[in-house]
Design brief:
GO terms for molecular function: transmembrane receptor protein tyrosine kinase activity. With 151 residues, this protein is mainly α. The chain contains 7 helices and no strands.
């Protein structure tokens, strides 16, 4: 849950961005936030942020994913997730800023895979996770846009 909700007792679009950041790190780590100590998203977020800030994110990224992803694509993906988890809502990106960055990361990954056509490409499991993540992002954006247009 968005840590800002504790003090404001209110959800916002930036709360959705925080939750989306948790989802992105779940994809990178290959596990749900609830599978990590206390099943607390804020603990999970702090863990991800501290590893990102210390340059130790590789310690948490799923080994299969790390081996199969383009480094630049992985870095963009991780950076997006990191900024989505900022404690201050004003420091988080708008969801409309997130999608183009994810598309950029995906494009880099596609180029990387294309260069590897003679070798192995992403595993079926990873492709499914990335597809689900992208589909989830698009759904979140449509939901937020629909909420905004109804206000």
């Amino acid at each position: 849950m968005d840590p800002a909700c504790v003090s404001t007792n209110a959800l916002s679009n930036k709360s959705d961005v925080f939750s989306f950041g948790v989802l992105l790190f779940e994809v990178l780590f290959g596990r749900e936030a609830s599978s990590i100590k206390n099943s607390d998203n804020w603990y999970f977020a702090r863990l991800a942020q501290s590893h990102y800030e210390e340059g130790k994110l590789d310690d948490l990224i799923h080994p299969d994913l790390r081996k199969q992803m383009n480094v630049e694509s992985l870095n963009i993906f991780a950076e997006i997730a990191y900024y989505c988890l900022k404690a201050q809502r004003s420091q988080r990106p708008d969801i409309n800023q997130v999608l183009p960055e994810l598309e950029k990361a995906l494009e880099l990954q596609h180029k990387y895979e294309h260069r590897l056509t003679a070798g192995a490409s992403l595993s079926k499991h990873l492709k499914e996770q990335l597809f689900e993540s992208q589909a989830g992002a698009k759904h979140e954006i449509r939901t937020i846009k629909a909420q905004r247009s109804s206000v």
